[in-house]
Design brief:
The protein has 124 residues and is α+β, with helices and mostly antiparallel strands. It contains 4 helices and 3 strands, in the order αβααββα. 64% of the residues lie in helices and 13% in strands. Strand 2 and strand 3 form a beta hairpin.
């Protein structure tokens, strides 16, 4: 019976990790106790226990907000990724790369404008 309980607890933690991984990269990185309870198959009052177990096993980090009844996570460490999670991660990395490239372009444009102003100031 104890081994069944341990397996059920591990399964619930994995379900929580799946829910957290599905959260958008930008925007609120928070899930409600109601969402956790639904995905993990526990009463809403026990949702925080699933989160505590995940934190305890160093699979996620964040803050449990008992007032607003949400878990605000700052870090997620997935153990294994299924193919759809790999696709999601690839999309997130591609979007990040595009933002980095756009930032680099803006920096170059800013530097070019500064050099042009400096060059004009030296000529006059």
């Amino acid at each position: 019976m104890a081994s069944e309980d341990a397996l059920l607890a591990k399964t619930r933690v994995q379900a929580l990790l799946g829910l957290l991984f599905a959260c958008p990269e930008h925007g609120p990185r928070a899930v409600s106790f109601a969402q956790i309870a639904k995905v993990c198959g526990v009463p809403e009052n026990d949702a925080d226990l699933v989160v505590i177990r995940a934190i305890e096993n160093k699979l996620t980090e964040g803050l449990i907000d008992g007032v607003d009844r949400v878990f605000r996570f700052t870090k997620l460490v997935p153990r294994a990724l299924n193919p759809s999670q790999i696709e999601q991660l690839a999309a997130k990395l591609e979007a990040w790369g595009a933002r980095v490239a756009a930032s680099g372009d803006l920096l170059l444009q800013s530097q070019a404008a500064s050099l042009a102003r400096l060059s004009m100031a030296v000529r006059t």
